[in-house]
Amino acid sequence: MQNNQNILTPGQTHGAAQALLCHNATTGVQASINGGGIVRQLGKANVTANITGNSTGKTYPQQLLESVINYTKDVVIITEAEPFEPPGPRIVYVNKAFTTLTGYDAHEVIGLTPRILQGPKTDSAELQKLKTALKTWQHCEITTVNYKKNGQEYWVNMTISPVADASGWYTHWIAIERDVTERKQEEMQKQVIMGLGQLFNTQGTMESILKKLVATLATYFNFCIAEIWLIDKNNQTLKLAADIENTVGAQFAYSAKAKNFKKGEGLPGLVWQSGAIEVLDELVNNTNFAYVAHLLRAAWGIPVTCDGELIGVFVLAVKKEVITHENLSGFFQQLGTYIGVEIKRKQQELELAQLAAFAPDIFSEIAVIKDMEFRIGLLESIGSPFCAVDKNWIVKYWNKRAEEELGLPKENIVGRNLWQVFTNHKSLAYQKYHEAMRTGIATYFEDYYVALGRWYYISLYPSINGLSAYFTDITERKKIKQALRESNERYKLVAKATRDWIWDLDIATGKITKEGDGFETLFGYNGDEIITDLLSWEKLVHPGDLFALRHGLNKVLALPTQNLWDCEYRFRKANGQYAQVASRGYILRDANEQPVRIIGAARDVTEINTQIEENRRIKQNLDSLINTTNDLVWSVDKNLNLLAGNIAFKNMSKVINGSPVAEGQSVMFKAFGEEVLKHWQNLYTKVLAGSSFNIEQVYTNPITAEVTNNIISFAPIKDTRGTITGVACFAKDITERVKYIEAIEKQNKSLREIAWMQSHIVRAPLANIMGIINLIREVKADSEESKDLLGHLIMQGEKLDTIINDIVIKANKL
Fold this sequence. Notes:
The structure is a single chain. This protein is of the alpha+beta class. It has 21 helices and 27 strands. Strands 1, 2, 3, 4, 5 and 6 form a six-stranded mixed sheet that branches. Strands 9-8-7-12-11-10 form a six-stranded antiparallel sheet. A five-stranded antiparallel sheet has the order 14-13-17-16-15, with helices on both faces.
């Protein structure tokens, strides 16, 4: 294979870096470079890029890819394709993330081999795996230790892929690297805890166990010095219980190191005094550290506690060039508590073993007095109740703690038969004691002591002369277990009672546990195999919602102060349709605020969302309806606070009150004045009592002085049970109608006046005619013609009189 001669100068962006975004580490798609545009194909992809470093004539996608490469948090390294043997392929490009992680600037590494990042702890097996892949031009992924410019170790996961030119000739390698130090440290911390737990369960003296303990810590975390100090029985001094110096520690000059400290003395004494982790960053000439520390960087003092009580101190020191422990304080705190509990437990276990070994001597009357005093002192120092009986159940020993805990003085039981004091021969304790005495086998059981209302874990150690019993009060532990059991039962009952899908996500493993039948009921699936982990969950989430779900969840998990997560997304049901799902979860975090579990519920809100949308549509239509009128529409609750009002009402309230009234505010505006307020109070009260009615009211605008006439309708608002909850009001402006009516009335008045006038004007000549007719009647007229004319004249006069009367009558009706 050929070597490409393009080595970039500082500041240049190598065009080959653009190819990395077209490389798929999952599918093994490889990249090729020929100087053209960007192309991606399945299988062996042709990915072209400008490998000359010339930035002129770049297309927008090329510029975008360069930007992504430069600003991604993952490290990107591009090297030549060969040689495989030392010194190896040379680096031709690194991005900004490389400098951020390693401390090397680009100009310091370009032209060099990536082997400058390797060191003593770089995994040789992983390197061999990489070498094999390089020689066969295969994609490769490894995880190993690399070293920063300052010598600090870090764990890196790297994916390496070959890059070919247009002819298929491999010219470069692209490595994408990610710092996984934090994850590896967490894994190591878990391994340490597991290893220490196994260590304390092995046989051996406390000294040998503690020696292995400090050696384990020194090995795992590169500590040059590891010590453990324990407080003596008199609570006066800290004594060195175990220590170790790694081989690298042999370089240190070892001064006359103290074997004990008082409170406040040395690093152990400082921790004893403060009760907290103490860190000494500058050790040169530091009198609190017993080593000549010119080659040491820092030392930690870690409190070892049990049940909140400090019982000892860890001291750990690290070399100057090793800077790997900035984030271990939380782990140290957890470690100190864990080891404190284990030390206390082991001490009691060893004490019991010693008691069991020499119990026969204690019961023997020929034991040496000095031995007896020593052993009684040991028995009295045990922090839990202890007693011993002979083969005839005669109590031979009853320590002070047994007196205090069980409320039974020593003089009332020593020398007496145990079962004459404790007379319940059907109890579990009676059965277990006799079983241990009969079989000679150590027996352990839990029992409830009714007289004290306490639970005890009882250890029975039979011997040739009798039996020793050791009691541990486990009442609080039992209460916690019972509370947890009840809580779990309630949790399961709730899961059964609800239609929601109750789920529990283990963040470390990604596994999901379901509770109840909610998942099957909501989505129609059968069996537990459908949702088993986060990946199977995500497969059922609508692709259009998956990014938002992941982004939102990761964002909340990264914030230590956030413990609640909620999200709505579409979820595929068994019938292939999508349900609108609302999930809400509570995040459980460890002592370091790291998320460990999420417990939550998912609910099908499809119908709810549909109803909400329908309500929104109805409200929108209603708003459109009431807001397109200039009439006032509003409603109030029983306290006369606004429930809803249209735009016209709020504009009116602004005119009266200076600002528009809002929902929840009182509609009894002070600007009304006392008399008007009282009037409206009476109206609302009448409606709240159940009445519906209309009123007409004249309103004068306080600003424009415009007078309007309104008709206001009032009606009570009732809930589904018929209870009155408020008042609905509608005010219509009838000013124009009133004006129209007034105009008609005015016109009618004018018509009546005209009718009256016309009737009187016409009636005057009529009266004259009738008068003449009467005169003619009085004069004798012999001719028939005269009689006929007179008859016609009378008839016409009567008709005219009738017409005038009709006019008068109709005018009066107007």
